[in-house]
């Protein structure tokens, strides 16, 4: 007889989820025990049970400590998402006091957004809600491909509107706007005070989130290049917006970058910020969350805080 899913779940010790998360985070039984608030033998017993359940060692001793097995690395993101969802579920109530709450918010964003909002958000939480933990997950290439699943497992994500976010039950609110600019090294003698599309097409590029071939529709920069009818010579590909200017500095390469980020790094890296030719789309960053969280006062406070910080950014 096949047991229903709810019966299988009822027979699981869900405390093992917390143990699994901390064991994967710490890669050390003693430190994991301290984070959970149990003895080292109790944490070792949990690890033994997890090993039996998954039929895998999960943690393997190596020189200088433990390393994760391939299965443990595969479980890492899943257990973070499941624990975060469980914490949100049991933290939900009819009232919310940011000064006394104990809660973790998990937000997916690009490192560009961290550069714009990170310092303000960190200071605001430290001052007004010192008991809140923040888990920032950085955007990965083509992350919108699994947006329908991801948005249910986190508190929200900050991203521009792209195909794949128009989903049933997904809400969003505008945070801030920006525009694309060109960045070149200040000593690049081949570039004047402005660039044409023809010049851009002939230059070597640094570009974020570009695959080996073609352009993913979800990447904002890719859409701009397609609008320009351009297939540039990309010499450096990076999985980060903040890394882009470092690979432009000291070279004759060019890149498109968000102006807010470009202005932050131009002087320290010796770059020039130039207008983007053509008619690039404006950048509009929005906060996205699932409608299941609409009635959660803590989540409402968090997203209102984000909107307020973005207004002053």
UniProtKB/TrEMBL annotation:
<dbReference type="InterPro" id="IPR036388">
    <property type="entry name" value="WH-like_DNA-bd_sf"/>
</dbReference>
<dbReference type="InterPro" id="IPR000847">
    <property type="entry name" value="LysR_HTH_N"/>
</dbReference>
<keyword id="KW-0238">DNA-binding</keyword>
<keyword id="KW-0804">Transcription</keyword>
<dbReference type="InterPro" id="IPR036390">
    <property type="entry name" value="WH_DNA-bd_sf"/>
</dbReference>
<protein>
    <submittedName>
        <fullName>LysR family transcriptional regulator</fullName>
    </submittedName>
</protein>
<dbReference type="Pfam" id="PF00126">
    <property type="entry name" value="HTH_1"/>
</dbReference>
<dbReference type="Pfam" id="PF03466">
    <property type="entry name" value="LysR_substrate"/>
</dbReference>
<keyword id="KW-0805">Transcription regulation</keyword>
<comment type="similarity">
    <text>Belongs to the LysR transcriptional regulatory family.</text>
</comment>
<dbReference type="InterPro" id="IPR037402">
    <property type="entry name" value="YidZ_PBP2"/>
</dbReference>
<dbReference type="InterPro" id="IPR050389">
    <property type="entry name" value="LysR-type_TF"/>
</dbReference>
<dbReference type="InterPro" id="IPR005119">
    <property type="entry name" value="LysR_subst-bd"/>
</dbReference>
<feature type="domain" description="HTH lysR-type">
    <location>
        <begin position="12"/>
        <end position="69"/>
    </location>
</feature>
């Amino acid at each position: 007889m096949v047991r229903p899913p709810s019966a299988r779940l009822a027979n699981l010790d869900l405390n093992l989820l917390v143990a699994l998360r901390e064991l994967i985070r710490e890669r050390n039984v003693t430190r994991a025990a301290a984070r959970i608030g149990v003895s080292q033998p109790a944490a070792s017993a949990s690890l033994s049970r997890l090993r039996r359940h998954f039929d895998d060692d999960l943690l393997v001793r190596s020189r200088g400590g433990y390393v994760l097995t391939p299965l443990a690395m595969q479980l890492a993101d899943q257990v973070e998402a499941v624990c975060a969802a469980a914490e949100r579920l049991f933290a939900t109530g009819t009232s919310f006091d940011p000064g006394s709450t104990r809660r973790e918010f998990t937000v997916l964003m690009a490192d560009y957004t961290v550069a714009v909002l990170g310092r303000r958000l960190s200071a605001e939480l430290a001052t007004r809600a010192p008991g809140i933990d923040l888990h920032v997950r950085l955007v990965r290439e083509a992350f919108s491909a699994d947006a329908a699943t991801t948005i249910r497992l986190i508190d929200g994500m900050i991203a521009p509107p792209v195909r794949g976010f128009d989903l049933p039950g997904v809400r969003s609110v505008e945070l801030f706007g920006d525009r694309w600019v060109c960045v070149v090294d200040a000593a690049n003698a081949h570039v004047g005070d402005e660039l044409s599309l023809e010049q851009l097409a002939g230059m070597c590029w640094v570009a974020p989130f570009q695959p080996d071939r073609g352009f993913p529709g979800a990447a904002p920069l890719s859409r701009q290049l397609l609008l320009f009818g351009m297939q540039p010579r990309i010499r450096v590909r990076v999985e980060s917006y903040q890394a882009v200017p470092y690979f432009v500095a000291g070279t004759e390469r060019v890149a498109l970058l968000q102006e807010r980020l470009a202005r932050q790094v131009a002087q320290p890296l010796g770059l020039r910020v130039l207008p983007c030719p053509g008619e690039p789309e404006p950048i509009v960053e929005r906060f996205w969350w699932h409608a299941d969280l609409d009635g959660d006062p803590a989540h409402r406070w968090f997203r209102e805080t984000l909107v307020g910080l973005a207004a002053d950014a």
